[in-house]
Each structure stands twice: as structure tokens, then as C-alpha cells.
Design a protein that fits this description.
The protein is of the alpha+beta class. The protein is built from four helices and five strands; from the N terminus they run H-H-E-H-E-E-H-E-E. A three-stranded antiparallel β-sheet has the order 3-2-5, with helices on one face. A two-stranded antiparallel ribbon has the order 1-4. A hairpin with a 5-residue loop joins strand 2 and strand 3. It is globular, with a radius of gyration of 21 Å.
Length: 114
């Protein structure tokens, strides 16, 4: 019985190891590669509701950037919901330097009632 358990465990680890060998290395590049340089940035429009509430904070956004540096899509990763739409609208207008392939750029948009 111990031999069957040991054989099953060995087979599991061999399958797991071979899975990591088959993964393309490019799937890791988005997480470990250097960030692209931001070359065009506009300031966010501070929402009137947030201003009336004296709300301030940071919205974290994941921008999918095309090889030409334009933003293909954006997704909120954290922050106050009242500020989120203004952050999305702003980041959609930003431009990054060109690259060989698209990348995910995590940015923080700061809001303050000043």
C-alpha cells in the first residue's frame, strides 16, 4: 500500500513539474519584465460628488497597453467607487512608449480636493 502511495505521489510531482516546463516563458514576462515608460499623461478630472464629500484617495488601475503604446482596455484593481470612473476615463487617454508586445501596466491615479 505504501508503494502505491509513493508511486502516486511521484507521478503527481512529475506531472506538475512537466506542466511548468511546457508553459511558455512569455506568460511570465508581463509580471517580471520592466515597466514601460509613460510618455503621455493627463491629470484626472476630480468628480463633483467626490469634491462635495471632500473625498480623496488612490485608484489602482490595470491598463492593457498595445505595442504602439495606446491603451486597449482598463480595469479597476482597487480604490473608492466614486473615483473609479474618473480614473478609468483618465488612464484610457494615457500613452506609453512602444514595445514589441502588449503589456499590463499597473498604475495609481491620485485624487485630492485641492
Amino acid at each position: 500500500m505504501k508503494d502505491k502511495a509513493r508511486l502516486g505521489t511521484t507521478a503527481f510531482f512529475l506531472i506538475l513539474f512537466s506542466f511548468f516546463l511546457v508553459l511558455p516563458l512569455s506568460s511570465f514576462s508581463q509580471q517580471t519584465g520592466p515597466l514601460r515608460r509613460l510618455i503621455g499623461r493627463t491629470a484626472p478630472e476630480y468628480p463633483q460628488l467626490a469634491r462635495s464629500m471632500a473625498l480623496q484617495g488612490v485608484v489602482k488601475v490595470d491598463a492593457l497597453v498595445a505595442p504602439d503604446g495606446t491603451v486597449k482596455s482598463v480595469q479597476i484593481k482597487g480604490g473608492h467607487p466614486v473615483l473609479a470612473q474618473a480614473a478609468l476615463k483618465t488612464v484610457r487617454q494615457w500613452k506609453w512608449e512602444s514595445a514589441a508586445r502588449e503589456s499590463h501596466e499597473i498604475v495609481e491615479v491620485r485624487f485630492s480636493p485641492e
